[in-house]
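Write out this protein's structure.
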Amino acid sequence: MKNDILSLIRSLEGECACGGSHTCTVRDIVIESGAVRRVGEILKRNGFPTDLLIVADKNTLVAAEGIIDSLDGFNIEYKIYDSIRVAEMSHVRELEDIIRGRDMGILSVGTGSVNDPCRLAAARQDKMLCIFATAPSMDGFASYSSPIVDGGFKLSYPAKTPEVIIGDTRILADAPTELKSAGFGDMIAKYVGLVDWQVSHILTGEVWCEKVASLTREATDELVAMADLVTSRDEATAGKIFESLLKTGVGMSFMQNSRPASGSEHIVAHLIECIELRDGKIPNYHGDDVGVCTLEVLKLYSLLAEMPQVKAHAENVDWDEIFDYYGSMRDDVYGMNFPTSVTDGITPELIVGKWDDVRGAIKSVPSYEECLDAMRRAGCKITADDIGKSRRLVDDCIKYSPFMRRRMTLLRLQTMVDM
């Protein structure tokens, strides 16, 4: 599988019809049974320094049994957390303090919340990074960005695509079923992300890359077609699922942002997480919240798609109410919306004139009903109750989340449309 993915990456690199030039810094991808026994060999052939920082939590290190034995010839230091459910800037700073000024590579053993601080610390200190995946639970292994909580506010930072990505199909297949289902929830969200990206292109002229969008769509469709197999312990299936997850990360790397892989649904989930952290609660697995938020957003988008015509108006929202809801995060939200806003230049006349194109973007992806069926077959959580959230919290986060990012989405556009 390694050669297939790398060949795909190389074939898509270079100047593109979208006007950009796509590159991806991944040098090596290994997806095979028993890869955990070859990690040291793989790092050496890719030029990693002999001083190596292993970052993991106690569970991911146990899942990667044998990885330490493979690292003969390396001088190893460890940063092992009890558990990281949320990646925070304090984690990034801890890692930076260890690697600063040293010829040292990073081996991140785990998934999103372990990988994300490593990705940002490695970027800031210009160090080589390898990710060893222990579960197919999210799509960011090959990503360029890191979602990090800083001062209670979650934001995606430009970070580092790893030089090396390794997945042992036996370990991936043996991962807990709830992590596999969470990964499916994170992937099916790409449908909303693609709609939002296209809507922004239609209304703001944001760059839209058909090549990258097609890569994301194909990867998502491939995984949805395997919905019945997601929770199985079959190695071949685990490898194919991991490959699909990697493709969307490559798309993010090509665009150097998260547009190909996330939209309104991720922002809603991020706000839920921030509210829970503020209230002292430990958030769920990222993919669980994202999957449920995807269904919530798709229901709203389907209502918009049913409207053959709209009445539109300039954005007119109660900023005092919005800032009151965000509380301690108000300064961050203010900076996302002032002195200029992502809705600047979007006139009622433009919305009305482009409405058929907006409806076409919504209808270009599977429906709410189709996604609900696939998520059920993949064992995903599908309701607010399933993820332990009150209806009030979910509704409030849907209402206020569009102002959390400087990013045009259909959920933000909804504030300018009479329903």
